[in-house]
Amino acid sequence: MDHADEHTEHGGTGALGDAEYAEFMELAAEEGFDLEEVADDLAEAGHGPLPVLAVVGRPNVGKSTLVNRIIGRREAVVEDRPGVTRDRVTYEANWNGRRFKIVDTGGWEQDVLGIDASVAAQAEFAIEAADAVVFVVDSTVGATDTDEAVVRLLRRAGKPVVLAANKVDGPSGEADAAALWNLGLGEPFPVSSLHGRGTGDLLDEIIAVLPEAPEMTFGDVIGGPRRIALIGRPNVGKSSLLNKVANEDRVVVNEIAGTTRDPVDELITLGGITWKFIDTAGIRRRVHLTEGADYYASLRTAAALEKAEVAVILVDASETLAEQDTRIITMAVEAGRAVVIAYNKWDLLDEERRYYLEREIEKDLVQVQWAPRVNVSARTGRHMEKLVPAIETALAGWETRIPTGRLNAFLGELVAAHPHPIRGGKQPRILFGTQAGTKPPRFVLFASGFLEAGYRRFIERRLREEFGFAGTPIQVSVRVREKRGRKK
């Protein structure tokens, strides 16, 4: 099989045309890279969003312990008491070369809000937003009424479900696991998330039901309006802003934080262009287990961000920048969306507050200095006309594509002028690279050795100085050269 066929077989790279792909593979061959591995690297970097697996179950059945086992490190908080996980948390996992996102969710239980309010609010959208679900049941306890309620939700959702019978620490627990056939979800996989027993078989089944990562077609629907998510912490003015750009009251506005529960999609003409605005419920810093509606709202907000192309993040300029603000910005960046930061309630600021706000921005938002900023007032309409150019700038950066030849000329000059520091008597250098995808821009660099995090940040900074990329995160991955013919 020649490498042009290989390119087709791997589903393309999302951004490289056939001629440019062939040119790049010639570069790789000259430098002594294993071409099959290079093709895999480009396919991996150029694919669409990773498939999503939700881990669900009632409290204290071992969901977070299982997540830690699957991702191979202790990241999800684990305590021997129910309700520790409250917010939905996403990690990236890999099993036998297949990458996917895994979502650790809060436990579901019958509480003061009642089974319908609590379980539905915390579960339905977590399941809806996933491609497949792992339902964790404590095999030492058996199926409870709450488990039965969750099964009904899973059946209605129609998503593939893998049943994990947890806390089977030895052969004596196999019979308890087998009893869970009665749930009607198919074969229960006996596992011990604490000790790792049976997790390999469970992961094999998970990979079997998860879809492959799609090609990069996101946002390419011809003629469709661009999608904008308005996100921010509660009561920052998202609904007021939507009403102002629409020139009518389309969304309920109230001084009580958290009035908006569900995203409201609105087609709005602004600056002569039709946009799809998604007004989302505010993200709270902590969402308590029993506050089902607010938990549901945070899930809906995360899902709206997944559907959007641009995140317009509203920050209350009249208040000190909060931890929630930086968390929300990080959420948008990690989702790979174009970003515009809008400072609302600008009309309420005096000169002293504006001075200190600039200092806060320099200190707390250093990681997103590339994001366009607009100062607006949703109440008075101040500077609303600046919103569309900022959104267009961010979208243009998000879709920017650098030809391979131009990128390698830039990299060659960069390495010559600013070589990587010598470590352990060796000096790693960048051999060549390519932009493997857009939306957001994703680069793959092939190097002779490990590149330190500080040098990677330096590369990103220089990429921005040279090519722009305003309003978009940049993803840079590095592949270290291996000898030709290395076997996996």
From TrEMBL:
<dbReference type="InterPro" id="IPR027417">
    <property type="entry name" value="P-loop_NTPase"/>
</dbReference>
<dbReference type="InterPro" id="IPR003593">
    <property type="entry name" value="AAA+_ATPase"/>
</dbReference>
<comment type="function">
    <text>GTPase that plays an essential role in the late steps of ribosome biogenesis.</text>
</comment>
<protein>
    <recommendedName>
        <fullName>GTPase Der</fullName>
    </recommendedName>
</protein>
<dbReference type="InterPro" id="IPR032859">
    <property type="entry name" value="KH_dom-like"/>
</dbReference>
<comment type="similarity">
    <text>Belongs to the TRAFAC class TrmE-Era-EngA-EngB-Septin-like GTPase superfamily. EngA (Der) GTPase family.</text>
</comment>
<keyword id="KW-0677">Repeat</keyword>
<feature type="binding site">
    <location>
        <begin position="57"/>
        <end position="64"/>
    </location>
    <ligand>
        <name>GTP 1</name>
    </ligand>
</feature>
<dbReference type="InterPro" id="IPR015946">
    <property type="entry name" value="KH_dom-like_a/b"/>
</dbReference>
<feature type="binding site">
    <location>
        <begin position="166"/>
        <end position="169"/>
    </location>
    <ligand>
        <name>GTP 1</name>
    </ligand>
</feature>
<feature type="domain" description="EngA-type G">
    <location>
        <begin position="51"/>
        <end position="214"/>
    </location>
</feature>
<dbReference type="GO" id="GO:0005525">
    <property type="term" value="F:GTP binding"/>
</dbReference>
<dbReference type="Pfam" id="PF01926">
    <property type="entry name" value="MMR_HSR1"/>
</dbReference>
<dbReference type="GO" id="GO:0043022">
    <property type="term" value="F:ribosome binding"/>
</dbReference>
<dbReference type="Pfam" id="PF14714">
    <property type="entry name" value="KH_dom-like"/>
</dbReference>
<keyword id="KW-0547">Nucleotide-binding</keyword>
<keyword id="KW-0690">Ribosome biogenesis</keyword>
<feature type="binding site">
    <location>
        <begin position="232"/>
        <end position="239"/>
    </location>
    <ligand>
        <name>GTP 2</name>
    </ligand>
</feature>
<keyword id="KW-0342">GTP-binding</keyword>
<feature type="domain" description="EngA-type G">
    <location>
        <begin position="226"/>
        <end position="399"/>
    </location>
</feature>
<dbReference type="InterPro" id="IPR031166">
    <property type="entry name" value="G_ENGA"/>
</dbReference>
<comment type="subunit">
    <text>Associates with the 50S ribosomal subunit.</text>
</comment>
<feature type="binding site">
    <location>
        <begin position="104"/>
        <end position="108"/>
    </location>
    <ligand>
        <name>GTP 1</name>
    </ligand>
</feature>
<dbReference type="GO" id="GO:0042254">
    <property type="term" value="P:ribosome biogenesis"/>
</dbReference>
<dbReference type="InterPro" id="IPR005225">
    <property type="entry name" value="Small_GTP-bd"/>
</dbReference>
<dbReference type="InterPro" id="IPR016484">
    <property type="entry name" value="GTPase_Der"/>
</dbReference>
<feature type="binding site">
    <location>
        <begin position="344"/>
        <end position="347"/>
    </location>
    <ligand>
        <name>GTP 2</name>
    </ligand>
</feature>
<dbReference type="InterPro" id="IPR006073">
    <property type="entry name" value="GTP-bd"/>
</dbReference>
<feature type="binding site">
    <location>
        <begin position="279"/>
        <end position="283"/>
    </location>
    <ligand>
        <name>GTP 2</name>
    </ligand>
</feature>
